[in-house]
Amino acid sequence: MNKLKQRWGITSNFQLIIIFIVFAVTGSSSAWLSKPFCEWLGVTKEDFGGWFTLIRLIIIFPIYQVLLVAIGTLFGQFQFFWKFEKKMLKSMGLGFLFKD
């Protein structure tokens, strides 16, 4: 855990626990929200077959990104999750979305 705390620039175990909770809540929430969102878009397993899982993951991704920062903010960790979000999106080639 100390390597993770050092890598993320965290000093307390409490903050690490809060961050883990935010990741858990965000993952569960985005997966839960993707079902009604897919239904709203008309994306069903019957229509897309084997592609359904891939399409649903693509739909979950932006939901997860927004929820991560929002839920992180509710838990008082906006700074950490905003930096985390920017770093992740930059590594995916989406760094043009952020001004430095």
UniProtKB/TrEMBL annotation:
Keywords: Membrane, Transferase, Transmembrane, Transmembrane helix. Residues 18-96 form the DUF6787 domain. One of its GO terms (molecular function) is transferase activity. It comes from the Bacteria. Signal peptide: none annotated. The chain crosses the membrane at residues 12-34, 54-82. This is Diacylglyceryl transferase. It comes from Flavobacterium hercynium.
